Each structure stands twice: as structure tokens, then as C-alpha cells.
Amino acid sequence: MKLPLYLGLLNRAEGTLAESYRQVSEGHGHEPDIHFLCRTLAEQCDAHQRALQPVIARYGEVDDDEPERLHADGLSEVRSGPVGLLRDLQDLYLLASFVDITWTMIRQAAQGMRDTELLAVVTACNSQTSTQLRWLQTRMSQAAPQALIVAG
Questions:
Q1: Which of 95, 112, 80, 2 is nearest to 41 (CA)?
Q2: Euclidean distance between CA atoms 14 and 8, whole angstroms
């Protein structure tokens, strides 16, 4: 069974996403919505990691460093200015997309195993991740004109 590999991947990805949200929150603190919402989204990711712990206790976890590689390449530090904000939001979107599709794959395994506990965790957490993606997409759309047309 390869589920422990994906549980490990998801656990680390959620941690990486939480850390990245915090980084963007601090780096773009002059944008109040970014500052407060990114902190809230980081707390959601922390809660997702906590929700995974009983599942990991049952099935195990295999470490894989893929999200760390993505984090190091994408958000080693925040960028400045309107274009920097847009690029940082894009990086968050990529990481959140990775988390989202990993939840989807784990959902498929949970359905195949008829694991109702895992399905409940996946349903709750993946729903929040989908909302995170929608917010990031909306915020990037809002930031793009300022960053790409107005910013000099």
C-alpha cells in the first residue's frame, strides 16, 4: 500500500503551505487583507495537519521532500512591490494546488478502502483548501492590473 507515502507528502505540503502563508503575511503586512487572511489560512493548514494525525497513526507516514523543494524554489523569501505580491500569490497558488490534488488522490484511496474516518477528514480539509484556491485566484485577479499596468 502506497497511502503512507501520500499521507507523508500531504502532511509536509500542508506544513510548507502554512509556513509560506505566514511568510507572505509578514512580507506583505502593509496589505491588511493579505496579512490577516494569510495568517488565517496558515492556521487552517495547521488544523489540517492535526486532523491528519489519527490517520497517520493508523496507516503510517513516509517522508518525501517534494513540497520542500517547491517551497525552496517558490518562496525562499517574499518579493517587494506590486509585482512581488502578485508573484508571491502565484507561488502560494501553486503550493495550494499541490495540496488540493493530493487531497483528491487520498480521497480516491479512502473511497476505495471505504474508510469513513479518512473520508470525513478529506472532505472537511479539502473543502477549505478549495476555498483557499478561490481566494488566491480572486486576489491575484485584483492585484494584476495594479502590478502589470500601473506599477512602474
A1: 95
A2: 10
Count the residues in the chain. 152
* b/e map 48-73, b = 16+ CB within 10 Å: bbeebeebeeebebeebeebeebbee
pLDDT tens track for 49-80: 999 999 999 999 887 655 555 433 446 666 66
Q: Side chain identity at 50, as an amino acid letter?
A: R
pTM exceeding 0.85 = yes
The grid cell for 33 is 487583507
User: What tens digit of pLDDT does each residue of 83-118 get?
Assistant: 888 899 999 999 999 999 999 999 999 999 999 999
Q: How far is CA 149 from CA 125, 146, 152, in A?
A: 36, 6, 8
Q: What is the CATH number of domain 3-150?
A: 1.20.1260.10
Amino acid letter, 69: R
Dist. CA 143–CA 86, nearest whole Å: 6
